Amino acid sequence: IERGKALFLSQGCGACHAVAGVSTGTVGPNLSKIGSAAATRQSGVAAADYLRESLLNPGASLVPGFAPIMPSYQGRLSPEDLTALMEFMLSLR
């Protein structure tokens, strides 16, 4: 989780996304409770699968009210880094 948090910050995620006690971004959705909210974003889609798709293909499922400006992390993160980032995000409840 700590590695994922470090990646969240080093990859610039916090510049757009707020996470309580970590970052104050306002351009993208607040991710402070994404660990519990991700399971409810798409019917029948597991939280981890939703987050993976959101990171690799951000335009696939847009949160209403937010512009489709998030870059894809496809090829920018190793599989291990992607997993660490997702674990950090899933811990946010």
Note the overall shape.
globular
What's the helical proportion of residues? 40-55%
Total helices: the number is: 4
Number of strands: 2
* Overall pLDDT confidence: 96
- The topology string of helices and strands comes to HEEHHH
As a percent range, the share of strand residues is: under 5%
Largest β sheet strand count, sense and barrel closure: 2 strands, antiparallel
Strand order of the largest sheet: 1-2
Radius of gyration: 12 Å
Secondary-structure-based class equals: mainly alpha
Distance between the termini: 13 Å
Query: Spans of 5+ residues with little confidence (pLDDT < 50)?
Result: none
Topology:
Elements: H1 2-10, E1 18-19, E2 23-24, H2 34-41, H3 47-56, H4 79-91
Antiparallel strand pairs: 1-2
Helix pairs in contact: 1-4, 2-3, 2-4, 3-4
